[in-house]
Specification:
Blueprint lengths: L16 E7 L5 E10 L4 E10 L6 E2 L7 E6 L5 E6 L8 E6 L6 E2 L5 E8 L5 E8 L2 H8 L1 H6 L12 E2 L3 E2 L6 E6 L5 E3 L7 E6 L5 E6 L13 E6 L6 E2 L7 E6 L5 E6 L11 E6 L6 E2 L25 E2 L5 E8 L2 E8 L5 E5 L4 E7 L5 E8 L2 E9 L4 E4 L16 E7 L2 E8 L10 E7 L13 H8 L3 E5 L9 H5 L8 H14 L4 E11 L1 H12 L5 E5 L5 H4 L22 H6 L13 E6 L7 H13 L4 E6 L6 H4 L2 H19 L2
Parallel strand pairs: 33-34, 33-35, 35-36, 36-37, 37-38
Antiparallel strand pairs: 1-2, 2-3, 3-4, 5-6, 6-7, 7-8, 9-10, 10-13, 11-12, 13-14, 15-16, 16-17, 17-18, 19-20, 20-21, 21-22, 23-24, 24-25, 25-26, 27-28, 28-29, 29-30, 31-32, 32-34
Amino acid sequence: MTQKKPVQAEDLYRLEILTGLSLSPDGSHVVYARQRTDKETEKKYSDLFVAPTRKGKPLQYTFAQTTDLSPLWSPDGRFIAFLSNRENEKQFQIYLLPVNGGEARPLTKMKGTFSSLSWSPDSTHLAFAFRQTDDEESAREKDEQKKTLGLTHRHITSLFYKLDGAGFLPQNKYHIWSLNVSTGSARQLTTGRFQEEDPVWMPDSQSLLFSSNRSEEPLLHPYDAQIFRIPFKGGKPKQLTDFKGQKSWASPSPDGKHIAFTGFTGEEPWWKNQGLWLMPSTGGTPINLTEKYDLTVASLTLNDTGGAPAFRPCWSPDGSALYFPVPEEGKNSVKKIDLSTRQMTDFLAPKGVVGALSFDKSHSGAAYFLGTVSDPNQVAFADLKKGETKILTSLNSFLKKRFFNEPEEIWFTSGPAKIQGWVLKPPGFDSKKKYPSILEIHGGPRMQYGFHFMHEFHFLAACGYVVYFSNPRGSRGYSESHTAAIWNQWGTVDYEDLMAFADLMEKKPYIDKKRMGVTGGSYGGYMTNWIIGHTKRFKAAVSQRSVSNLLSMWGSSDMNWSFQTEFGGSPPWDDFDNYWKQSPMSAMGNAATPTLVIHSENDLRCDIEQGEQVFTALKYNGVDAEMIRFPEEPHGLSRGGRTDRRIIRLNHILRWFDIYLKT
């Protein structure tokens, strides 16, 4: 019998990730996109597979060394539409693949970015949001000299002009288009200075719904989108909602008489519970169906091996119920709400994370992504007639040859709050031994850790560390008051909760309290910075893609000025002391913990100067510190960066902790 090996950093090359899913109308097959990494080129490719839901094995449908994404089965079951960059690595197009055989053919030859494909119910058209490439960029691509010399300058006129992971944004906005799948003729349905997104068809195939922020100054009121309806043959959009607040994921009822959507009232605070709303399709006063349940409709459980995508509210065929995603206590479940009684029940609630839910036409079956603490993601299918659920795929089977423990769930008290956490012990754990430990802190901060596979945690545990992590106040997945607790109060109760967990852990007989480390990224990096300025209990720290100075964060982040909504609502020149009080840099003079600073040079969320300030302050004060900078990478390096760089990152984290916690 082959002996199992511990989780390794290089396993990232072998991990396959699910990125999109669609169930056939008759429920017999599910198409999904499976991403893999080519070690030689360091590129990620994605292929389409089709799995039978009853008997048989998945079959690969596309084979090119390209990226095929967002598969969507046509309502008549004859075609699969998807996005692919097979003709130009930098430009995706819409393709159509016959289900019963034949090559995929391109439907578009457009320059720009596609989003949100949606089939018309009669299977004759596709709708999508599209942002055209700016004329200046198109002209530069045609000029060989300009292509060789590169960009000379950027002329910025928009308040929001960059986005982490995407770079500098075009001047053009997303607009709604429709595409005749027989002729390939595309028609732009909306124009103008406003951004329009997330199109979905009405049941009669004659009109579409979409969301758009058309306030007088959208960039100063980013959380004020409305729901609109427009004829697919063109015409003036009709606004259906009229209250301030964010609205998205519009979903028409099967009879077309009602529209469900997600959103909240008022523009601030942006982190308030996002509810499930219902309104007449002609307009009128919406009703918040989930108001009494104190939950948010979203998919917010963190992982580093492929997510569980959110999905728009799904209707039952008779229009009597709605299905929607909810993060709760480390899980991401699917809830069902009866529209006549307003009673909510669990529809899919495994001890894991559910995403990308897709029903067949009769609702006799549902396909979805399922992730757990021991399995990054699989395609699952629920036979609703038989009441049975099964896994259709066997991705990442090599993990069965890896030796790792599952995190142990733990609840503890911090002040008036009950906090959920997890403890991951090393393989071959011996309760009689003393172990070094690492406190991991999540980013967001309005996210949650939970029952989802974290390669980083398993890697560190495999190297002999007890890894523990939690959802302190400020996290999602609990009550709105739990989420609200740190509004304009960063570094207060969140710090108390994390220290309470560390207090609990250092009392464990297997924890060596003289060898405790701490790390986190983004907001977790903020808390790491805050911790080293307020306590010397940790012997080593790794601060990743962090926030350190709220004053310089304002305006330099891709969040731009809207960052201030987290800190009282005023710009820093009107509330200087408040921003500085909540900045880790204000206490950096007290820091004495050896700290490794990790930051990506193309991080547009938390600019690299945030990490540079921490590194410089520590070195200036004589604290042992190093900095690892990753070129070209964005904020999300640890989850989606180039694989060799992700591995280097993990090895540096391990190296740093080994120096101070094992010697």
